[in-house]
UniProtKB/TrEMBL annotation:
Keywords: Membrane, Receptor, Transcription, Transcription regulation, Transmembrane, Transmembrane helix. Residues 1-217 form the NR LBD domain. It comes from Angiostrongylus costaricensis (Nematode worm). Coiled coil: none annotated. Belongs to the nuclear hormone receptor family. The keyword Nucleus does not apply. The keyword Membrane applies. The chain crosses the membrane at residues 35-53. PROSITE patterns: NR_LBD. It comes from the Eukaryota. This is NR LBD domain-containing protein. InterPro entries: NHR-like_dom_sf (IPR035500), Nucl_hrmn_rcpt_lig-bd (IPR000536).
Amino acid sequence: MLKWRRFVIKVVIEAINFQRYCNFLRQWCYVQNLFFRYACAVDCMITSAYFTYRLGRHKKRMVMFNGEFLQMDPLPIRGDEPGAEVLFNSKSDYDKYRSLMPTKIRQWTNMCVPFCELHASFEEYALLKALTIWHLMFYKLSEAGRNVCHRQRDLIMLALHQVCSKKALDPEVRMGSLLLAMSYVLEQAQALVHNYRMITFFDVMKCDSVLVDMFNY
């Protein structure tokens, strides 16, 4: 009888440990998915801003992360103006445009234009991108993940300060300007994630299966 009780207790303990392990795996997969999703969004936004600064600002073109561009002078219509649907060949084309263009216009006015005024170097752009990704993920991580995030952010901040010290007359002011840029990059990255989640959820347009998986919880 005693052996049987020990056996039952052992089975129960192993079952509990297995359940904890499964919960850990589910949580870890969720964190990985979330980190990848937001990292892609930040990369898409800030890379577009940097490409626009380097390649498109003089001609008022917003250059995307993939090298394509939109002419932003004059600003394109948002798609939600009265009677705008008559400008499109089909309702599906109109729905796609109306889903994407408002985000693109906000990306130009709220991020690309102020980023161009920052005149960021490549080193500043790369460090700002990494810092923004870690900052965005901080409150979505576990305690252990936050400790890793703290270390990464401290190292990036140190590197950014060194870059500013070498290239700016007033390193503190320059670094402050770069850190303030994180606010509009974060805002546009979150808007991008939300927008594409809505597009994939309501099946407004056909998206790559990897993109659909990436925006699923």
